[in-house]
Specification:
By secondary structure, the protein is mostly helical. It has four helices and no strands. It has one domain. Helix content is 88%, strand content 0%.
């Protein structure tokens, strides 16, 4: 597999795992959290749990992406891509969740059943989050290569 195809495959896999992880976390927050709150868990613990559910998946996957990228690219480029992934993943998921009603509305309007709206929203969220994350990572690679071409790479 060529360098570009392996890059896209790794980014696509990592982004898909991240979005799937966030969907499962969202399910836990929506279904499990109300039961735990009714049992009297302090509000501070709930906030810490929510922050950890956002930060931990992105951090673990950024580390995994860094290790995978080091097999093909230099340490500097792999670090830049992993950092871009860690920052872009939660941001792209927020943008995707804001755009999800559009996809759901179109799917429900075109296909006529209410459940297609839910399916359209999920597909829209997944596709937008994955594409925005991949775009941010590719942009980071482009910046790093441009700096190397200029002859003044940043300090490592």
């Amino acid at each position: 597999m060529g360098k570009t195809r392996s890059l896209i495959a790794v980014l696509l896999t990592t982004s898909a795992i991240a979005v799937t992880g966030y969907f499962s976390t969202l399910f836990i927050v929506v279904v499990v959290a109300p039961v735990v709150v009714m049992r009297g868990l302090p509000l501070g613990a709930e906030r810490i749990g929510f922050a950890a559910s956002v930060i931990v998946p992105a951090a673990v996957l950024a580390w995994w992406l860094f290790k995978k990228m080091q097999q093909t690219y230099s340490r500097r480029i792999a670090r830049a891509v992993a950092f871009a992934f860690g920052v872009a993943t939660p941001v792209s998921l927020g943008v995707a969740l804001a755009l999800a009603p559009l996809g759901g509305g179109y799917a429900e309007g075109l296909l006529g059943r209410p459940y297609w709206g839910l399916i359209g929203s999920l597909v829209t969220t997944f596709a937008v989050a994955v594409l925005l994350t991949i775009a941010a990572c590719l942009f980071a690679i482009r910046i790093m290569r441009w700096e190397e071409a200029q002859g003044n790479p940043t300090q490592s």
